[in-house]
Automatic annotation (TrEMBL), chain A:
NDH-1 is composed of 14 different subunits. Subunits NuoA, H, J, K, L, M, N constitute the membrane sector of the complex. Its main location: membrane. PANTHER family: NADH DEHYDROGENASE. The chain crosses the membrane at residues 12-31, 43-63, 93-113, 125-144, 189-216, 228-248, 268-292, 299-321, 372-396, 416-438, 450-470, 476-495, 507-526. Residues 140-464 form the NADH:quinone oxidoreductase/Mrp antiporter transmembrane domain. NDH-1 shuttles electrons from NADH, via FMN and iron-sulfur (Fe-S) centers, to quinones in the respiratory chain. The immediate electron acceptor for the enzyme in this species is believed to be a menaquinone. Couples the redox reaction to proton translocation (for every two electrons transferred, four hydrogen ions are translocated across the cytoplasmic membrane), and thus conserves the redox energy in a proton gradient. It holds the Pfam family Proton_antipo_M. Keywords: Cell membrane, Membrane, NAD, Quinone, Translocase, Transmembrane, Transmembrane helix, Transport. The keyword Coiled coil does not apply. One of its GO terms (molecular function) is quinone binding. This is NADH-quinone oxidoreductase subunit N. It is a multi-pass membrane protein.
Automatic annotation (TrEMBL), chain B:
One of its GO terms (molecular function) is ubiquinone binding. One of its GO terms (cellular component) is endomembrane system. This is NADH-quinone oxidoreductase subunit M. InterPro entries: NADH_Q_OxRdtase_chainM/4, NADH_UbQ_OxRdtase, ND/Mrp_TM. It is found in: Endomembrane system; Membrane. It is a multi-pass membrane protein.
Length: 532, 511
């Protein structure tokens, strides 16, 4: 590499996975032009292949030692610190998150249900574009790159949400009312997202005004040296974080989540809940733990309150949900709260973390490790649950009513058992050991950080959440009862929905659920890799 | 010995796999086989256990499982856990044998047996794990199987009380709250000491943790165990769970699951954060004593038309476990010996009582005290005799197992550990004495109501067809419990030989 003044050298190896996905997106679009209408469903496999190749490239970077010796690229001497300001870094943090993003997208692409009605070429193109943005966010080490990544992630997502079907006015009134049409959901998503991005850009500009740099590492160095604490800086930081809070659907930026999830096609909802959210968390972690590290004491309290409110609201509202996707939507809000918890930790067994300068993202400390590990586990279990819902109820409004899933084990045992396991993982109870370990990691971070109150709030939340996860999981295994006598039309619709849940599952979702299951079982027995 | 400990977990696990390999008709028999095999293997511990070193942890296995969480797969037993492990394997084996017929009949034997075997892994694991986090994992593992047993094989309350799903949900939410707080307590201990190793923590005996941190840890950990034990006023899940649970569910719930609470108090409360326990001992004892009296009064209240015999025994558990709490809170050798003995005795006796009540349920379709008829002596002589035996054992007749535990506890309360208010404990002792009298009162009333009197047919009509004395299967499942009750009553050293030196060490005495 040539770190000359003025000229930038680009390390193409470091950005290879991103390039593959971006070029793959174009490839899918072009292939679409030459594919007959009937065969378009098979673009799914092309899209999956692109992701697998990118995963192999990612693996190559791991083996090439990027996790111990980071590959920095797009570097400039910004004049603020002794080191070069680099915009993109392929280190263990970015590689973990990118692998997670790729794996998550792979599962979402595969989980398309039978009779999935979207324009496939555009659908896969948009997903891959959005994925490119997400991956850039994980590697970004300055605010400009981060914002570009964020926008690349979001713009295709609006269109993806818009692929959701029109509102159905079925005979089962409540179900139809609860589901939002795709266009309406997309519009809501778009407006709220744009507003939050605008707020975030304003925040970034304030922070830039104070520090004079957009590089995360530089900002930390500047703030560390100057010890500058002005209210304008705090305002800028809070506004910046708000943009990420929207992406991870933390309270009070969560309103879009249930609406958008239930309006969007189920795989897109799964994509938003895992890939988009993980990218948001990656951005949040980088910003908070590198750029704003010196200020984490002020921000930590804010994050702690945000986490407590987010999980409590998410879990309590989830108690009342009756459609599968809405329940999962609120549960992801609750889960986001858990991921936020370790980020509120500012001390570790009495040592002040703000005093420990962290130049790069590969040694962010044990608290952040807990968050990242939680994200990894969350991706597997949440995608698994979404995968089953998508495969069975993907064509029903809102993924089907919870009541439709009753006694699923007698009709579809191969779907019921994994779904039961994923739900128990989300609840964090054995035999869902993976979820249990994830929660233990988070609890441990917060206890070591001395935030006992937050730990107790989270403990209560775990109990609340168990109620709705377990109710659903138990219903799956309920003995078959003779159908209650209901009025003709209503019963007819209910039976139709149930029989929709009894159809055989296509190959794609089978692979998706199977992969999620393998990962879940593996991490349940040996979760160590996720903590590195 | 390590191999035996591993086998205790591996045999049920292997049985679990076998269940899903063989045709489903054999499921319950495979389960019974696995249960008996596990019990037989656990019996091998008796000659292998080195009684001269009963205080030290034997047969240790220590493997790293998850380094990042400091979770180690660390097993071992000492004199405190040995009796509880044997109690667990015995009761599970008996339950699995007992369940063979009931479950083959309804054709869902596979899932039922699978839940019982999972339960066994969790219960045994809790008693033999020597890593706080591993202990927590096993502690949590019992929740889902027990939930499944109650919610899918239970029965709704006949008198408009909780439905089986509600009872099951109440059970799991309560205990999960407890165990989540318990986990926080463990993490506080870890944050202060940097280790989850229970052997090390017991050696240090609270050294290196400040008194305030110990208090915090004890409140968190103690809440978890108090819900499990259960301690008044956190017991409200227990009567519902017992009333709804199927027979074997009740037996294991009362026989083993409650002991996980006592065991936790002794092992972690007394052994690892003694200063925390010391600070709250007087309060803990007070709750225990209130539980004793409350439990007996609630039992007396059940002796009425519509009174439920299963519920009555559930309340009696609250009373009996109150004694164990009092013994633990006295922080004396004899008190904790008593608590441990009472736990084992309660497991045997209450297990037997729940089996007997389950027999009523099977015969008459109800456990309503006034609907199961009178004059059981006249109708089924042996059944009546066994019920009377279990009842007098439960009320603490000398010569039976129920006696020693509570006597020791009272002796412990008479001379509480250093620094504890003697006056308070004397008052507790007196109140507990009143509780014992009340216990005798309701148990004798039950015996009079059910066993004596002129023979009347149970209110239920199609009863006479099922009215029979003990079946061979019932003999097989119940007699061992009765025999052990007698043995432990006549020769308490069977439990205490191993336990006494271990309790000595847990209390912090060296050498």
């Amino acid at each position: 590499m040539n770190h000359g003044f003025g000229g930038q050298s680009i390390d193409y190896t470091a950005i290879m996975p991103v390039l593959i996905v971006a070029l793959g997106a174009l490839g899918v679009l072009i292939t679409d032009l030459f594919t007959r209408e009937k065969r378009k469903h098979d673009l799914l496999w092309l899209s999956a292949a692109v992701i697998v190749i990118a995963l192999i490239a990612e693996l190559g970077l791991w083996i090439g030692g990027a996790s111990t010796k980071p590959r920095l690229t797009f570097c400039l001497d910004s004049g603020h610190s002794t080191v070069l300001g680099c915009s993109y870094s392929a280190d263990s943090f970015s590689l973990t998150i990118q692998t997670l993003l790729l794996g998550g997208t792979l599962l979402t692409v595969l989980m398309a249900p039978r009779r999935f009605k979207v324009p496939f070429g555009e659908y896969h193109f948009l997903i891959l574009c959005s994925l490119t943005g997400a991956m850039v966010m994980a590697g970004a080490r300055d605010f400009i790159t981060m914002t570009v990544g964020l926008e690349t992630l979001s713009l295709p997502a609006y269109a993806l949400v818009g692929f959701g079907g029109r509102k159905r006015r079925g005979s089962d009134g409540s179900a139809a009312d609860a589901s939002t049409s795709g266009a309406e959901a997309a519009l809501k998503f778009f407006l709220m997202s744009v507003a939050s991005t605008a707020v975030m850009l304003f925040g970034i500009s304030l922070v830039y005004g104070v520090t004079g740099s957009v590089y995360f590492a530089d900002m930390q160095a500047v703030l560390h040296l100057s010890g500058y604490h002005a209210s304008i800086l705090t305002t800028g930081m809070v506004l910046t974080l708000a943009g990420f809070a929207f992406k991870v659907s933390a309270v009070p930026f969560h309103f879009w989540t249930p609406e958008v999830y239930s309006g969007a096609p189920v795989p897109v909802a799964a994509y938003l809940s895992v890939v988009s959210k993980t990218a948001g968390f990656a951005g949040l972690i980088l910003t908070l733990e590198i750029a704003f590290r010196t200020e984490i004491h002020n921000l930590g309290t804010l994050i702690a309150i945000l986490a407590a409110v987010t999980m409590t609201l998410g879990n309590t509202v989830a108690l009342r949900q009756r459609s599968a996707v809405r329940l999962l939507a609120w549960s992801t809000i609750g889960q986001a709260g858990y991921v936020l918890v370790p980020l509120a930790v500012t001390t570790w067994n009495g040592a002040d973390l703000a005093k420990v300068p962290v130049g790069q993202a590969w040694n962010l400390g044990p608290a952040v490790t807990a968050s990242v590990a939680y994200l990894v586990f969350y991706a597997a279990m949440n995608l698994g649950a979404f995968g089953v819902v998508s495969a069975l109820g993907g064509t029903l409004p809102g993924g089907g009513e919870l009541a439709d899933y009753r006694s699923l084990s007698s009709r579809q045992p191969r779907a019921a058992w994994p779904l039961g396991l994923f739900l128990l993982c989300l609840a964090g109870l054995p035999p869902g050991l993976m979820g249990l370990f994830a929660k233990v990691a988070v609890f441990r971070a917060v206890i070591s950080g001395g935030l006992t109150w937050l730990a107790v709030v989270m403990a209560v939340n775990v109990v609340i959440a168990l109620f709705y996860y377990l109710r659903w999981a138990a219903a799956l295994f309920a003995p078959v009862t003779t159908a209650p006598a209901v009025a003709g039309a209503e019963a007819g619709a209910a039976i139709e929905q149930r029989s929709a849940l009894s159809r055989s599952i296509p190959l794609g979702p089978r692979i998706a659920v199977g992969l999620a299951l393998v990962v879940t079982v593996f991490f349940s027995l040996y979760p160590a890799p996720a903590f590195k | 010995m390590s191999a035996i400990l591993l086998l205790l977990l591996a045999i049920p696990a292997a049985g679990l796999l076998a269940l899903y390999v063989v045709p489903r008709e054999f499921a319950s028999r495979i389960g019974a086989l696995a249960g008996v095999l596990t019990f037989a293997v656990s019996l091998v511990l008796l000659p292998l256990f080195d009684y001269s070193a009963g205080a030290s942890f034997q047969g240790q296995i220590d493997l790293s499982w998850i380094q990042a969480l400091d979770l180690r797969f660390h097993l071992g037993i000492d004199g405190v856990s040995l009796p509880l492990v044997l109690l667990t394997t015995l009761l599970t084996a008996l339950c699995l044998i007992y369940a063979v017929r009931t479950t083959t009949r309804d054709g869902k034997g596979r899932a039922f047996t699978a839940l019982l075997l999972t339960l066994e892994i969790g219960m045994v694991g809790t008693f033999i794990s020597l890593d706080l986090l591993l202990f927590f994992v096993f502690f949590e593992l019992v929740l889902i199987p027990m939930y499944g047993l109650i919610s899918h094989w239970g029965s709704d309350d006949a008198h408009g009380g909780a439905s089986k799903q509600q009872s099951a949900m109440k059970f799991i939410l309560y205990t999960l709250l407890g165990s989540a707080l318990m986990l926080l307590g463990f993490l506080v201990i870890h944050a202060k000491t940097g280790t989850f190793d229970m052997v090390l923590l017991q050696q240090r005996h609270g050294l290196g943790i400040t008194a305030s941190a110990q208090s915090l840890a004890f409140v968190l950990v103690g809440l978890g165990f108090a819900i499990k034990t259960p301690m008044w006023p956190l017991h409200t899940w227990l009567p519902d769970a017992h009333t709804s649970a199927p027979t074997v569910g009740s037996v294991l719930l009362a026989g083993v699951l409650l002991k996980m609470g006592t065991y936790g108090f002794i092992r972690i409360g007394v052994g690892e954060i003694p200063e925390g326990l010391h600070r709250y001992a007087v309060a803990l004892a007070a709750f225990g004593v209130v539980g004793i009296v409350y439990g007996s009064l609630a039992c007396l209240a059940q002796i009425r038309a519509d009174g439920d015999l299963k519920r009555l025994i559930a309340y009696s558990s609250v009373g009996h476990m109150g004694f164990t709490l009092l013994g633990i809170a006295s922080m004396t050798q004899v008190g904790i010996d008593g608590a441990l003995f009472a736990s084992v005795a309660h497991g045997l006796i209450t297990g037997l009582l729940f089996f007997l009540v389950g027999g009523f349920k099977e015969r008459y379709g109800t456990t309503d005290l006034f609907a199961i008829g009178r004059g059981l002596y006249g109708r089924s002589r042996r059944y009546g005799a066994l019920l009377a035996f279990a009842a007098v054992a439960s009320l603490g007749l000398p010569g039976l197992a129920g006696f020693w535990g509570e006597l020791y506890v009272l002796v412990g309360a008479a001379r509480p550990g250093p620094g504890l208010s003697v006056t308070a404990f004397h008052v507790y002792m007196a109140v507990a004495g009143i509780g014992m009298v009340l216990t005798a009162a309701y148990l004798l009333l039950v015996v009079r109501r059910v066993c004596m009197g002129t023979v009347t047919d149970p209110a239920n009509e199609n009863v006479l067809a099922h009215d029979s004395d003990l079946t061979p299967r019932e003999w097989l499942a119940w007699l061992p419990l009765a025999a052990l009750t007698l043995l432990a009553g006549l020769w308490p050293a069977v439990v205490l030989a191993a336990a006494d030196p271990a309790v000595h060490t847990v209390l912090g005495a060296r050498g």
